[in-house]
Amino acid sequence: MKVDLYLYRARLDEMAARARQADAGFDGLFVAESVGDPFQALAIASQHLHRGVLGTSIALAFPRSPMLTAVSAWDLQRASRGRFVLGLGSQVRKHIERRFSSAFTPPMPRLREYVRTVRHIWGAFAGEHPLDFHGEYYTLDYLPPGMNPGPLEFPKPQVYLAALGPAMFEAAGDVADGAFIHPIHTHTYLREVAEPAIARGLAKTGRDRADFALSVTTLCIVDEDTGDAEREAVRRQFAFYASTPAYRPVLDLHGWGALGESLRQKVRQGEHDTMAQLVPDEILDAFCVVAPTWQGAIKVAREKYAGVADRVMFQSTPPLATA
Fold this sequence. Notes:
Blueprint: E1 2-7, H1 15-25, E2 28-31, H2 38-45, E3 53-56, E4 59-60, H3 66-79, E5 84-89, H4 93-99, H5 107-125, E6 133-134, E7 139-140, E8 158-163, H6 166-175, E9 178-181, H7 187-204, E10 213-222, H8 228-242, H9 248-253, H10 257-268, H11 281-287, E11 288-291, H12 294-304, E12 311-314
Parallel strand pairs: 1-2, 1-12, 2-3, 3-5, 4-5, 5-8, 8-9, 9-10, 10-11, 10-12
Antiparallel strand pairs: 6-7
Helix pairs in contact: 1-2, 3-5, 5-6, 6-7
């Protein structure tokens, strides 16, 4: 199993140091799209990361033309000498429509087609066929020779999709090389919901599970310096996530749906400051990796996800002094 360094809020002025940190103690470096452009951050990191993969976890698909995404991924695959992973996700309707003023619905078939469109563009870049994609949501059929970046000396980038429900896991198994899952998951959910859905998707293309990577992002409580303060910070983060209806199926699977409803009620009433008080340690620990040090957390994560995940990374980020 690979353990990756994950940056939820990547800073451009830190990326060289973060790349060196990933080189020293992790198997890869992944950057989220939260407050900045992950492709810019990874462009810097690609010049300092000498082993392992680097990728987006995730870049938002719908606000970007597939051509822009394909070009950015192509550039990073060249810069990293074939070690880039294009992680894509749909986000939620409010962000896509109101923050980015882009089309959202229907997210699952749109994202499926988006991946196929990007792969078609890469084929055109590689000289395998002309650019001539006509789908339900995307049409691209004009690529002047002077605008074609040309083939790579490396394989095309791998594509991972963000997934939570069975439909998106199945879509990832069908059109992608891997999937990311949000921290609101359990080992049981991965076994009983994610894996069967991935298998159904893989069956559509005649692939085996060995051809696919499941990358898990996990909440992590490391009390190396902060003690109970870190646990309470993660408890607040979990309460916020668990109040969202999209994550209710995970809670329901374990009989914890009432907690999700209570947290949702707190949100409706504007009682955000008291939400975390509803989350007991028993439930919090089921979703978290808990260890006294970051090195201990890596060990615990490897043990916890052995046999069910191929890659794992932590929602929180180790300090730069930690390798």
